[in-house]
Amino acid sequence: MRAAARANPNETCKMTELTIAVADHVATITIDRPQKLNAMTPAMIAALQAHAKAINENRDIWVAVLRAAGERSFCAGSDVGGLDDYVDPVALRDRPDYCDAVRGINRPVVCAINGYAFGGGLEMALSTDIRIASPNARFAAPEIKLGWIGGGGMTYLLAHAIGPSNAAMMVMTGDAVDAEKALSWGLVSEIAPLAELHARADAIARTIASRAPVAARTAKDNLRAAYALTREDAIRYERDLQTICFATEDAAEGRRAFKEKRAPVFRGR
To answer: Which of 127, 147, 159, 182 is the Cys-Cys partner for 102 at CB 3.0 to 4.6 Å?
Structure first.
């Protein structure tokens, strides 16, 4: 799969219950296990890791979209039926993590949330850069109801996305919030009708893909750094990244296009 994804950017590949399709600089990953609410299995995690690696290795991919099949669920997290297969708690801690795989994608990632985003599914959505949801989407950190807490970045990601009090409400009660609440809290950027959700995510991805790809990747790096740096360090880092972008061929093309009153043609260099 990985060799094919690098060699042919318009090829669609399937690995277990995840698919990847690459066209026009956009890679679309689809979680395809709707009969089980798109819950993640070890094989699906391995597939997602492989897809993320293929995206990072393909310079012709500038943006990624993460979405799910079906109408009920984006992802219900890990398949609980398989959690007892870990031989001890250390094996659970050291298991391959699908949220890590999503966070490891170094291109902008747009997420289309079509239903339940529970547990690891919520963490996976939070690991993307831009999130949109259908009206029937629901978001929850329900692990506390089963006796544990999330381990894929739940508290950190939620606190940064919706604030500490709202994050505490979700993590400590385990109760779900609906799409409107998620929108008001800033968990998602917008709500789109279910029938239009994937098209809207694709449109956002195409818009980003029309921009300078080095600048888009740099913007992602800059946003992530802003979590950890002081204000002064973050502004200094941003200026360093701006300098790097300014030296690219795409930046020169952008300046030429502006002077010539035409649309720029970016090449990712």
So the answer is: 127
φ/ψ of 67, rounded to 5, equals -145, 180
pLDDT digits (tens, 9 = 90+) for 111-141: 999 999 999 999 999 999 999 999 999 999 9
- The whole-model pTM stands at 0.88
What are the residue numbers of the active site? 123, 143
Handedness of CA 29, 35, 39, 42 (dihedral sign): negative
Residue 40: CB atoms within 10 A of its CB come to 27
List of residues 6+ apart from 239 with CB closer than 8 A: none
Q: Does a structural domain hold residue 188? A: yes
231 and 244 fall within a common domain: yes
Tell me, yes or no, whether 269 lies in a domain: no
Whether 180 and 158 map to the same domain: the answer is yes
Query: Residue 117: phi, psi to the nearest 5?
Result: -125, 85
Strand ranges inside the chain, DSSP E: 12-15, 18-23, 26-31, 63-68, 73-75, 109-113, 116-118, 130-133, 138-140, 177-178, 190-191
Q: Judge residue 258's burial from the number of C-beta atoms within 10 Å of its C-beta, 0-12 exposed, 13-18 middle, 19 or more buried.
A: exposed
Distances (CA, A) of 60 to 8, 154, 174, 216: 10, 32, 41, 14
Q: Is 113 helix (H, G, I), strand (E, B) or coil?
A: strand
Enclosing H/E stretch for 173: helix 164-173
